[in-house]
Amino acid sequence: MGEDIMKQWAENWEKLMGDHLEKLVHNEKFISEMSKSIAATMTGKAFYSKALDEQMAAMNLPSRTEIVKILQKLTDIEERLIDLTERFEDYVDAQQAKPAVKAAPAAEKQEAAAPARDAKARKQKK
Amino acid sequence: MQEQEAVKATQEIPEAYREMLSRSVTKSYTESDRHRLGMEPTPKVQVFRQGCWTLYRCGTEFASDYDPVLIIPSLINRNYILDLLPGHSLIEQMKLAGLDVFLIDWGDPDAGMGNYGFDQYVSKWVKRAVRQVKKITGKARVQLAGQCIGGMMATMYAAHPDLREDLSTLFLLTAPLDLADSGLLAQWTATEGFDVDKLTAAFQGLVPAHFFHASFPLLDPKNQLAKYRRLLENFEMPGFKEIWEALDIWGSDNVDFTKQAYTELISTLYQENAFYKGEYMVGGRKVDFKDIDVPILSLVARDDHVFTEKAAFAIHECKAAKKGRLDYHVIPAGHVSLIAAHPVRVHTYTLVREFLTRPEQLRTGAKKK
Fold first, then answer.
1. Average pLDDT over residues B183-207
2. Which residues of A touch B (CB under 8 A)?
3. Of A23-37, B38-52, B190-204, highest mean pLDDT
4. If exposure means fewest CB atoms within 10 Å of the residue's CB, which of B128, B210, B224, B232 is most exposed?
5. Is the ipTM of this complex over 0.90?
6. Chain B interface test: which of A15, A36, A71, A75 (most B C-beta within 10 Å)
7. Residue B17 burial (C-beta neighbours within 10 Å; 0-12, 13-18, 19+)
8. A68-111: per-residue pLDDT in tens?
9. Domain topology for B13-362
10. B254 with B213: CB under 8 angstroms?
11. Residue in chain A nearest B225 by alpha carbon
């Protein structure tokens, strides 16, 4: 019996609250007022942060804004570095794909130069 | 008398339930809770890392006859919803199907990434992840998968004129494309006074997770209220409390947004609906999802409280759909339960496995005939 009472009470509460919240979250006026209220709070917070930045600057100390800017620059540098590394890797891959075409003439040239090189070496020995 | 009986009934509530309730309400979950439940069952190997994001290769066996799969998770939550528990894991199922699976973990962005929006995520980081996957596997093309916002990012990639050549298929999981009238979130952002610049004016670099996650329970208030009752009612059901708690851990493990990505999501993607209109720029070029021509699997949740089906249905407007290369399914489940919890997930797994392992010749629309 006690269990039934609890269950019924919980079910009623759940239904009532559910319906109420459902109406609330679909209510444009409520959403609009909520948004405006949060925006006002955030604008105040931004104003306070700016004032704090100025105080830090007056004390010749770096502010959070400045540290975030440095962090952003470091992140950008890392990004560019990886970009360059990839380009370099692509270049190396492309070069490694070429040797099959280029290596052959180079090897022929070396072979052709070999007798002359040997003759020169023999001459030097003499 | 009635009061006494009610008190007695309260005392009969299992102690284990009280403990779970306490952990859930206070969100005092620890690593040991995740370990106890056996969350993220699939082993993962880190193959690339940049800043906060990491690319993982899933499993221990990598040989595969199919093009590798790269999964882009949502930016809003952690990626382990895709690998929640044994038997409740999409990644586990992909591995069982013999696929080589790569997973991006967006990690925790820092304030230095505040200027990076979706353009950076797609044209740089997803591109980089695709490059790594191609390099590691030696395959020329990748099967790109995306969940929720990650699905939208995957669609951007597949639509990009310079990037789309990398892909052999596109798999979208509850991915929104047309954000106009796409549910409560769209209604909120369209409300007069919803000014994203003012709302984020105080944040430097990042929009904290608690700021936007505070509104998430309001997307489905009835479900939120019923959640603890459902736990009590099904407490003795084998496996129920484990999946309930795993989902609760995941739901409370939120991630900060970069300020730029948040602003773009609200103003450009929601309020202007720019991606659907083909006006969104990625890597300096406009991307229009209607140009996508690779075979697509799009899975949509019928009871999705984040986006309505209309948001995903837009995929029917792309070239691939007109050529009969779109597999589109509406699953009778919720936004995440279609892959993680609901018994219908087994059907989802079958659809995914069948699509990702489908031979090339059957991807041209022959299956439809």
1. 85
2. 1-3, 5-6, 9-11, 14, 17-18, 21-22, 25-26, 28, 31-33, 35-36, 38-39, 42-43, 45-46, 49, 64-65, 68, 71-75, 78-79, 82-83, 86
3. B38-52
4. B210
5. no
6. A75
7. middle
8. 999 999 999 999 999 999 999 999 989 988 866 555 555 555 55
9. Rossmann fold (3.40.50)
10. yes
11. A14
